[in-house]
Amino acid sequence: MNTDSNVIDELDRLLERARRNTLGDILARTRDRMPDKFALAYRDKRLNYEELDDLVNQTAYAFRNRGMKKGDMITVMSKNSLDFVVVNFALARLGAVMIPINYMLTKDDVAFILKHAGACGLIASEEYALVLDQASNGLEITFRFLMDMEDGEIPDERLDEWTPLRDARTEQPTDFVDCDLFDDALAHVLYTSGTESKPKGVMLTHKSIVSEYVSCIVDGNMAEGDVLIHALPMYHSAQLHCFLGPSIYLGSSGIILDGASPEVILRTIEKEGATQLFCPPTVWIALLRHPEFDTRDLSTLEKCYYGAAIMPREILKELSERLPNAKFWNFYGQTEVAPLATALQPEDQLRKLGSAGKPALNMQTKIVDENDQEVPRGEIGEIVHRTPHAMKGYLFDSDKTAEAFRGGWFHSGDLGVMDEEGYITIIDRKKDMINTGGVNVSSREVEETIYQLEGVSEVAVIGISDKYWIEAVTAIIVPKENANLTEEEVVEYCGSVLSKFKVPKYVAFADSLPKNPSGKVLKRELRDEYEGLGED
Predict the structure, then answer these.
(1) pTM, 2 dp
(2) DSSP line for 130-156
(3) How many CB atoms lie within 10 A of CB 300?
(4) What stretches of 412-462 show up as alpha helix (H) in DSSP?
(5) Dihedral angle sign, alpha carbons of residues 292, 468, 254, 148
(6) 333-349 pLDDT, tens digit each
(7) Contact 319, 350 (CB under 8 A)
(8) 461: how many CB neighbours lie within 10 A of its CB?
(9) Contact status, residue 442 vs residue 494, Cβ threshold 8 Å
(10) Is 503 inside any structural domain?
């Protein structure tokens, strides 16, 4: 009986392995299909898919030989680079869990993530290694690896406990690194502020991510022949999971940039003949206003994507006129669905201006009321989803997970309306999230910071329309009697405590805040009242 049971268990394992579809597998398949195809370029380095896969395997062996194993929580902190991509797939091959960290966060924000996740490994570019060292003080860290070190470079002497990846993977094998890993194993934990003052760890499995790639490919009309520019931060799910991952799955070619410099983006489009570009509205606006926009050859650019914030109508019209060869897509979603939820197709851009489009291929979406009952078309409610994209839950937070998935639907927290044709328009963020420049900011966190200032009686933090930021963090303060609080003092104090992107762009003072009968501040009224503040 025991023998039979063991045989069945082994057969199940072999079947699962043969049917597996993880992040590590998709790169291996692309390598098999097109080993000589140009895969990625970063600065002066260019790799085909065979070379990229070899580098991933060498890196995975380097990790494994030092004791890294399936399930280990490994944080990664770096700007865009080739090593960021290599580390992403190397960790996936081992079954280790990658936790990309926003490099704009303060040391305290980073320390919270490291402790909450139970991180045992740190991987960083040299400029962020010391931040991770300081943030991990008191934690048991087993692995420390430095990314992006070139031959001959000597690391900062303060980083003597860190091993350069270039050294660790030297002379490592290039054959496929395999492990006992299945589709629904955890792949990434992405921390999002949500509407709480402390970030939540979004658990994404290989199955969630790969199914989301399929939706992106189909709804974004992506193809093997695309040449992409990866300019937005890869720590964010938009660039990482809507564009980088799908392009590797397909076998497209990508150009990695250090950041979203308009000048560099425009020159790269011309130099590389780029066909595909994703930017949030703030970056599209910066491109339009750059003096080289009309002097560079942008004729190859055919597929343009925006998301992370609402695109102003006039900007979309101007882009359509000045890039006549390009088609535009609006991708809407959030980290908890890996992140694509809906897509607005090119043919609907002007016909459905301002819409987030229809549910993506692997999404079922509806609009519900406070009792989770579907509302009639045209009525406002909360946007909820059923999808294999969905996260496995919030790390170490079953209560918030249960709340988010009540009734068997993921509750987005966004308010929207669905028209008779099934197109969704986002009306508001249910819990007053502020999306500034494509980055989420918790209004509550900023409010709690400002409340620590002497002289503050009440404060409400809102997002108002802004020509550059799309939404600007704005603080409306009711001072205490006889207090002489100034805008400069508020901004200076917030800057000493908060990450830079969370600091209010505007500060206004008021005699009182509008409230409903139960005492809740009516932020919609504040947004209406202060909407023009940034134009003064």
Answers:
(1) 0.85
(2) HHHHHHTTTS---EEEEESPPTT----
(3) 15
(4) 443-450
(5) positive
(6) 999 999 999 999 999 99
(7) no
(8) 26
(9) no
(10) yes
